[in-house]
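User: I'm writing a tutorial on reading structure tokens. Could you give me a worked example: one chain, its sequence, then its tokens, then a sentence or two explaining what the tokens reveal?
Assistant: Sure. Here is the example chain.
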Amino acid sequence: MKDVSRLPGAAHHHWQWQARAACRGLGPGRFFHPAGERGEEREDRDEAAKRVCQGCPVRAACLEHALRTREPFGVWGGLTEEERRRLLSGAAARPVSV
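And here are its predicted structure tokens:
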């Protein structure tokens, strides 16, 4: 057997925030649009998802995860994929101050 003593331990602390999420147990249908959903139906679903996010105790951790991993789909941390994309492109366009 190989020596595994130098391997990192379990990474549970990276995901523990999910257990406290307001969306826990609600299913993905509220947060991820079905193929072809457009217009008012999509806006209504996004707004319903955002209402769940509003009072979520781990909203910041959720959004941070989505931004860090470049999550391409769904509402995470109260932002849609389009809103996150705009946020990231705006952040990329700003000069870094030293």
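What the tokens reveal: The two ends are 48 Å apart (CA to CA). The chain has three helices and no strands.
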